[in-house]
Amino acid sequence: MKAGCKVKICGITNLEDARLAAAEGADYIGVVVDVSFSPRSLTIEQAGKIFASPYRPTVALVHQISFTKLELLISSLKPFAVQFLSRAADLIVRAKKIYPGIQMWQSIHLPPADEQVNRPEIERLVWECSEAGADLVVFDTAAVISGSKRFGGTGRQSNWQLVQQLVKNCPLPAFLAGGINPSNVAQAIAFVKPAGIDLCSGVEASPGQKSLNKLRALMTEVRKENAL
């Protein structure tokens, strides 16, 4: 998958950053919607202009959302995909029946690299997602930041050796997230061989504000690695 590694720039909070990500070559942009623990979260109303923009296919990231709220989000924003930060097999089954044209992505969170992980449980979650009809999984990192557990947007790496094996055996396209930045993105793509990378803080000037220089440096490295 390395030759075609895609890039999703997440945590977009404004139209200018959406434009910058697209101009530098990102394949997707991600917007966090009504997620209480995220400093980059927008309301459905605030997110509307970004989802209505022509820049790139836009993914809505949600956490512990009700099906009623999910329906409101989809009807209001018309996202390319919905990415669930919490376990959502039942929601995915229901949503795929009603919204077959919208992709459903599932984040699967691993602990930071220095902590133990229950590999059989992670593998079970992957197959649960596949059977529910998910289109893609994102292997990300969950970590406690300032006393609060955050699912994504942590800037922390998981165990990439484990993720490499999970990606290799995954029945779905798999993206890698967590602690990726311009200095390690080439290593991440070469070693893990994901279908794509998904990152947020690694290309920020400050939370919710993207850095043009970091975006440009990241995409330069991705293009080099994809050309090998």
At a glance:
Pathway: Amino-acid biosynthesis; L-tryptophan biosynthesis; L-tryptophan from chorismate: step 3/5. The chain has 228 residues and is an alpha/beta fold. The chain has 8 helices and 11 strands.
Structure description:
With 228 residues, the chain is α/β, with parallel strands linked by helices. The protein has helices at residues 15-23, 44-52, 67-77, 89-98, 119-132, 160-169, 185-192, 212-227, and strands spanning 6-9, 28-32, 58-62, 81-84, 103-110, 136-145, 148-151, 174-177, 196-199, 204-206, 209-210. It has one domain: TIM Barrel, CATH 3.20.20. The chain contains eight helices and eleven strands. Helix 7 links the parallel strand 8 and strand 9. Helix 7 (185-192) runs parallel beside helix 8 (212-227). The termini are close together. The relative contact order is 0.17.
SSE diagram, text form:
Elements: E1 6-9, H1 15-23, E2 28-32, H2 44-52, E3 58-62, H3 67-77, E4 81-84, H4 89-98, E5 103-110, H5 119-132, E6 136-145, E7 148-151, H6 160-169, E8 174-177, H7 185-192, E9 196-199, E10 204-206, E11 209-210, H8 212-227
Parallel strand pairs: 1-2, 1-9, 2-3, 3-4, 4-5, 5-6, 6-8, 8-9
Antiparallel strand pairs: 6-7, 10-11
Helix pairs in contact: 4-5, 7-8
C-alpha Rg (nearest Å):
16 Å
How many distinct domains? Answer: 1
Q: Which architecture would the CATH scheme give at its second level?
A: Alpha-Beta Barrel
Number of strands: 11
Family: Belongs to the TrpF family.
Pfam family, one: PRAI
Keywords: Amino-acid biosynthesis, Aromatic amino acid biosynthesis, Isomerase, Tryptophan biosynthesis
Catalytic activity: N-(5-phospho-beta-D-ribosyl)anthranilate = 1-(2-carboxyphenylamino)-1-deoxy-D-ribulose 5-phosphate
